[in-house]
Design brief:
Largest sheet of chain A: none
Helix content of chain A: 55-70%
Strand content of chain B: under 5%
Distance between the termini of chain B: 59 Å
Largest interface: A-B, 41 and 48 residues
CATH topology of chain B: Sodium/glucose cotransporter
Number of strands of chain A: 0
Oligomer: heterodimer
Largest sheet of chain B: none
Number of domains of chain B: 1
Distance between the termini of chain A: 29 Å
Shape of chain B: globular
CATH architecture of chain B: Up-down Bundle
Strand content of chain A: under 5%
Number of helices of chain B: 23
Number of domains of chain A: 1
Structural class of chain B: mainly alpha
CATH superfamily of chain B: Sodium/glucose cotransporter
Radius of gyration of chain A: 16 Å
Order of helices and strands of chain B: HHHHHHHHHHHHHHHHHHHHHHH
Radius of gyration of chain B: 22 Å
CATH class of chain B: Mainly Alpha
Number of strands of chain B: 0
Number of helices of chain A: 2
Chain lengths: ~60, ~500
């Protein structure tokens, strides 16, 4: 699989978690350590993933 | 002195500072269309990040999102963070937009589509969608400013006066030096937005005994708001997807933000823009949601979600000075979005409609003049719409901000398959793009106006479900611009490899 395909797959996996965890796993957890904490950590993972990818970018010589 | 006096004083300082910054930016203004609308593609990383942040985050955050949290709880955080997660797609789209923007000299993302599909009608369709859906979105920002100023001044400043102030500032910021004045004032406004909202949240949380005590009180007072679908049952999956889906693709569907992908001066500036925005967005989203939660504890029982922020700001625990600074911060968030919309719409009129359809041989000077004339005209139309909606709502917001913003994004979502096709699918055709955009937009408008939600799915979801297969099927049945597609995607393939982009 290409790097691009890996990145798209990872993104789709993150989106699947976005629905699956809060609605099917944490739906009865009525504390801050439930959906609130999940979404905060989840988006932090997405942001870090983006940083990991774009830190490799280099100036394009013409 | 009265509250109204201090509100006026705060507004005067804000306008004076913004004007001074815009006039300073004008000193760097060169000649030409690319200079006016894109700052000649030479913006540094910090300014790019700040203008992207201020354009994206509007009055919706501290009013609409806070109100949504106030009424329906943590699902609002998930919805807004889903948008931020969608920014992951910037690792694909930012270098692509930037590279082809530089190579082909595109001024607007709509021009990119016209050229890639070799059809001015693709551009015309995308332009009409932008005009139809961005005007209400801009109008929502104006309404937010009007109601906020009215609330903070305890009714002394009429709603319409607040709207007029926002319109005049937006026209000034975007007309004085085009994107240069917009970017500079955006940076100024982004700093105000995040610092004052953090400061006032700090005051509120401190009054509740600190962050730990604040969370404990939330868990004991409103536990049902800390889960989905929430005690109110509102955050069912349909509502979540209905709100989140249009926002997920906001980075490419909204031309006022995708146009910013053309402006960084270098790859380093691009990285700073993306990194800066992601950090800004993360912090600002958490602040807005915590703000909404603090309102549930301090001002429970409100009937109108959009009044949560003005009501919280009117509490005695918030010093009047801080409340006025927050009002300025939210006003800044709204105006920084409106001026960017005005500038983008003016570039769409000048480049994609006037030059693209009416007068292809127009001189650059005249094209620029057309764009400059369009700015106040579009502002007046948005003003008229805001006033009309405010009147329709009988003088109160009536939960208008979240649905109107969502409707605008849902409509613009219909151009997403066309944008994906432009970059990733050589077989994509102009007919496929036009048919999918038009049919999708009609579905969104019809469902939005009638309130019809078959299977409980929201208008944007229905529009998207129809327009994606339509785009594919019609494209397969019609003839693609093969030569252009090969050249466009072939160029990108080589350039992406050189920059180690994916």
């Amino acid at each position: 699989m290409t790097k691009s395909a890996w990145a798209w797959t990872w993104f789709a996996f993150l989106l699947a978690l976005d629905i699956a965890i809060p609605w099917f796993v944490l739906t009865r957890v009525e504390t801050v350590s439930g959906a609130f904490l999940f979404w905060t950590v989840w988006v932090a993972v997405a942001i870090i993933s983006a940083f990991v990818i774009f830190r490799r970018w280099r100036e394009v010589k013409r | 002195m009265s509250a109204a006096f201090w509100v006026w004083f705060g507004i005067a300082i804000y306008i004076a500072a913004g004007l001074a910054i815009a006039i300073m930016a004008r000193r760097q203004l060169g000649a030409g269309v690319s200079e006016f609308f894109l700052a000649n593609r030479k913006l540094g990383g910090f300014l790019s990040a700040m203008t992207y942040s201020a354009t994206t985050y509007s009055a919706f955050m501290m009013i609409g999102l806070a109100g949504l949290t106030y009424f329906h709880g943590v699902g609002a955080l998930g919805f807004e963070l889903t948008y931020l997660c969608g920014m992951f797609m910037m690792v694909f789209f930012l270098p692509r937009f930037w590279l082809v923007g530089k190579k082909y000299g595109y001024v607007s993302p709509i021009e990119l589509l016209s050229d890639r599909y070799q059809s001015k009608w693709v551009g015309a369709t995308a332009a009409i969608l932008a005009l139809v859906f961005l005007v209400p979105y801009g109008a929502v920002q104006l309404m937010g400013v009007g109601y906020l100023m009215n609330g903070i001044s305890q009714g002394v400043i009429p709603v319409v006066v607040g709207i007029i102030i926002a319109v005049v500032c937006a026209i000034a910021w975007s007309s004085i030096a085009g994107l240069r004045s917009v970017a500079w004032t955006d940076a100024f406004q982004a700093i105000i937005m995040i610092t004052v909202s953090a400061a006032v949240l700090g005051v509120v949380v401190a009054s509740l005994g600190g962050l730990g005590a604040f969370f404990s009180k939330l868990e004991s007072a409103v536990p049902g708001l800390l889960t989905v679908p929430a005690a109110t049952g509102a955050w069912n999956i349909n509502m979540f997807i209905g709100l989140a889906l249009p926002w997920l693709f906001f980075l490419i569907s909204n031309p006022q933000v995708s146009q910013r992908l053309f402006i960084p001066k270098s790859v380093t500036a691009m990285k700073q823009m993306l990194g800066g925005f992601l950090i800004f967005g993360f912090i600002y989203t958490l602040i807005s949601v915590l703000w909404g939660f603090s309102a549930t504890l301090l001002v429970p029982g409100l009937e109108n979600a959009d009044l949560a922020t003005p009501t919280l700001l009117a509490l005695p625990i918030i010093p009047m000075g801080l409340a006025i600074i927050v009002m300025i911060g939210i006003t800044a968030a709204a105006i920084s979005t409106i001026d960017s919309i005005l500038l983008t719409l003016s570039s769409v009129w000048a480049r994609d409609i006037y030059k693209g359809l009416i007068n292809p041989k127009v001189s650059e000077r005249k094209e620029l003049r057309v764009g400059q004339w369009v700015i106040p005209i579009m502002a007046i139309i948005a003003f008229g719409f805001a006033w009309w909606v405010a009147e329709q709502a009988g003088g109160v917001l009536e939960l208008m901000i979240a649905p109107l913003s969502a409707a605008a994004s849902a409509g613009l979502l219909m151009v997403v398959p066309t944008i994906f096709g432009a970059f990733f699918w050589k077989r994509a055709t102009a007919t496929g793009a036009i048919v999918s955009c038009i049919v999708g937009a009609i579905i969104v408008l019809l469902f939005q106006i009638t309130g019809w939600k078959p299977l409980g799915w929201w208008p944007g979801v229905w529009g998207f479900v129809v327009c994606v297969p339509l785009f594919i099927i019609v494209s397969l049945a019609t003839k693609p611009p093969r030569e252009k597609a090969e050249e466009f995607i072939g160029y990108l393939r080589g350039a992406l490899k050189k920059g180690r982009f994916i």
